[in-house]
Design goal:
By secondary structure, the protein is mostly helical. The protein has one domain. The protein is 64% helix and 0% strand. The protein contains 2 helices and no strands. It has helices at 7-21, 26-54.
Length: 69
C-alpha cells in the first residue's frame, strides 16, 4: 500500500519519457497527457483520503527507518 506514495513521482516521469518518444504524434500525446492527468487526480484523491483516514504515511527506502516526521 505504501508503494502508492511513489506514483505521483514515477508516473509523470515515465509518461514524460514516453511523450518524448511520440514527438510526431501530437494527438496521441494529448490523449496520453489527458489520461495521465486524470490518473494523477485519482491518485491524489485516493492518497488524500488514505492520509485523512489512517494518518501520516511514510515510505522507507532501503529498509531505513524514518528519523523524523
Amino acid at each position: 500500500m505504501n508503494n502508492l506514495l511513489m506514483l505521483p513521482v514515477i508516473l509523470p516521469f515515465a509518461v514524460g519519457a514516453l511523450l518524448i518518444l511520440l514527438v510526431r504524434y501530437r494527438k496521441t500525446q494529448r490523449i496520453i497527457s489527458a489520461l495521465t492527468s486524470f490518473a494523477m487526480l485519482g491518485i491524489a484523491i485516493f492518497l488524500a483520503y488514505e492520509a485523512y483516514t489512517t494518518g501520516v504515511m511514510t515510505l522507507e527506502f532501503g529498509n531505513w527507518t524514518a528519523h523524523s516526521g
